[in-house]
Design a protein that fits this description.
- With 450 residues, this protein is of the alpha/beta class.
- It has 3 domains: 18-140, Rossmann fold; 161-388, pyruvate-formate lyase- activating enzyme, CATH 3.80.30; 394-448, OB fold (Dihydrolipoamide Acetyltransferase, E2P) (Beta Barrel).
- 34% of the residues lie in helices and 21% in strands.
- The protein is built from 14 helices and 19 strands.
- The chain has helices at residues 27-42, 68-77, 80-85, 95-101, 103-108, 124-133, 179-183, 191-203, 227-237, 255-263, 281-286, 293-306, 325-338, 365-388; strands at 18-23, 46-47, 56-61, 90-94, 114-116, 138-140, 161-165, 167-168, 187-188, 208-212, 242-246, 271-273, 311-318, 342-347, 394-402, 408-412, 418-422, 431-439, 444-448.
- A 6-stranded parallel sheet has the order 2-1-3-4-5-6, with helices on both faces. A 5-stranded mixed β-barrel has the order 15-16-17-19-18. The protein has a 3-stranded parallel sheet with strand order 7-10-11, sandwiched between helices.
- α8 (191-203) packs parallel to α9 (227-237), α9 (227-237) runs parallel beside α10 and α13 runs parallel beside α14 (365-388).
- It binds S-adenosyl-L-homocysteine, iron/sulfur cluster and FE3-S4 cluster.
- Iron/sulfur cluster (SF4) binds at residues 170, 172-174, 177, 179-180, 214-215, 249.
Length: 450
């Protein structure tokens, strides 16, 4: 099924060497690191738990917010001693900072042996082979603009719940965001490939998949299958128990998608992460988000009408250039109005290549910090109260793994709440009824209903 454009010349590049990957950023990077491990294991590398055991260290970097490049340099700096001790050790930097900085990384940090871009993951076995046989440094950061996005999911230990990439890249060009530059143009995988992947994963014990993309609801494959069609197919044509997706963009969340979620609510989970970024229409326009405050509120009303138990979470940026106190209060009020139980909020950080980085009315760092704290305070006041309503309720929990606390397991509710409770490891992979005894905004405690 996979049409991999790379052929790997040497099947034993690794010779049993240890490989360690340090992963930053979003689920996309987590998923990519799984892929790197799987590809490298096929070349006889052995995944190890610490950099000390490794002869190949990869940093899978993220560039979404401040000090991204600095973080790469400082982490690579900590490997200096290891490199002195082990001349065989190779260090590679991939991910969004690799894509963004290319050869600059090697110029500024000579300990780095090779840099690879976000479209070069499947080429990694070849790059690593070169790194071990050649003297010079290697930089491979080309986007595969013309190649179709035909890859199969590669993950060694998928567990109970895993990610499946359905699209890559982003064409939205929100003015604050580096992703369109670090991940390239948007491309969707053919839906048949996704269905085949999911069927394989089910055979390996997977019960839940999260369909992954920067902007999943603009998914559109070469057969004209849109995201709603894809979800319906996954629900109807595979035996997967639970379907989730992330991230969706408000401008592309339409009634058809909400109806599809409602129709397949036995499988498609009642949870949506729908970033609004700012509650001020003026700022949304400067962010190039393509919706107004009112349109966002209408979207979530529409969603709640279609899916009555829907739980929403969101992303927010404070201190975007030109944001006044009044704009900021529009954001605070939207959080209250929409009654989000979970928010992910960040201070605006100017990113390379982006339009907003060049806007002249940047907000002072102190003001951003103060606003972020105020937003969290306001949200906390509300969130503790909101989640209290769950105490006493019985929820359907898919058990994912044992807990760090002895005798406990953890899993997620249909609405994506993380729940810890006393239970045997035999429950892993099963869906059980759990009564919530204590609810905090980020985590619930409960007890198994026998
Ligand atoms: N594709 C997703 C977002 C991916 S980035 C979407 O459109 O919703 C994840 C989050 O990081 C964004 O939602 C945004 O809130 C935040 N973010 C992105 N760029 C940022 C920047 N320059 N400064 C601060 N936060 C940023
Ligand atoms: Fe970035 Fe906007 Fe694309 Fe999300 S939709 S990845 S915020 S450009
Ligand atoms: Fe970071 Fe790249 Fe993801 S910038 S958030 S790793 S797409």
């Amino acid at each position: 099924m996979a049409e991999n454009s790379y052929t790997y010349s040497n099947q034993d590049v690794g010779q049993g060497r240890g490989v360690y990957i340090s992963t930053y950023g979003c689920q996309m990077n987590v998923n990519d690191s799984d892929r790197m491990y799987a590809l490298l294991e096929m070349q006889n590398f052995t995944p190890v738990q610490t950099p000390e055991e490794a002869s190949l260290i990869l940093v899978n970097s993220c560039s979404i917010r401040e000090k991204a490049v600095h973080k790469v340099y400082s982490e690579v700096g900590t490997f200096r001693k290891l490199k002195e001790k082990n001349p065989d050790l190779k260090i590679g930097v991939g991910g969004c900072v690799g894509q963004q900085e290319k050869d600059n990384l090697i110029k500024n940090q000579p300990m780095i042996d090779f840099v690879f871009g976000t479209d070069q993951i499947d080429n990694l076995p070849n790059l690593v082979a070169e790194a071990y046989t050649q003297k010079g440094k290697i930089v491979s950061a080309k986007f595969e603009h013309r190649a179709p996005y035909h890859v199969e999911t590669l993950v060694k230990n998928p567990g109970v719940a895993t990610f499946v990439n359905i699209a890559k890249g982003c064409d939205n060009f929100c003015t604050f965001c580096v992703v369109p530059y670090t991940r390239g143009r948007e491309k969707s995988r053919p839906h048949q490939h996704i269905l085949t992947d999911i069927r394989h994963l089910i055979k390996r014990g997977v019960k839940e998949v999260t369909l992954l993309g920067q902007n999943v609801n603009s998914y559109n494959d070469e057969h004209g299958t849109d995201f709603a069609d894809l979800m319906a197919k996954v629900a109807l044509e595979t035996d997967i128990e639970r379907i989730r997706f992330t991230t969706s963009h408000p401008k592309d969340f339409n009634q058809k998608l909400a109806d599809t979620m409602a129709r397949h609510n036995d499988k498609i989970m009642e949870y949506v992460h729908l970033p609004f970024q700012s509650g001020s229409t003026r700022i949304l326009e400067r962010m190039n988000r393509n919706y107004t405050r009112e349109q966002y509120l209408e979207k979530i009303e529409m969603l709640k009408r279609s899916i009555p138990n829907l739980v929403l979470s969101t992303d927010i940026i404070v201190g975007f250039p030109g944001e006044t106190e009044e704009d900021f209060m529009d954001t605070v009020n939207l959080v209250k109005e929409a009654r989000f139980e979970t928010i992910f909020a960040f201070k605006y950080s100017p990113r390379p290549f982006t339009k907003a980085a060049k806007f002249e009315d940047q907000v002072d760092e102190d003001v951003k910090t103060e606003r972020l704290n105020r937003l969290f305070d306001e949200h906390d006041k509300m969130a503790f109260e909101l989640v209290k309503a769950y105490e006493g309720q019985v929820m359907k929990i898919l058990v994912e793994k044992t807990d760090r606390e002895f005798g406990k397991v953890q899993g997620r509710s249909t609405s994506n709440k993380l729940v810890h409770f006393m239970g045997s490891p035999d429950l892993i992979g099963k869906t059980v009824d759990v009564k919530i005894t204590k609810a905090f905004p980020a985590v619930f405690r409960g007890e198994l209903v026998q």
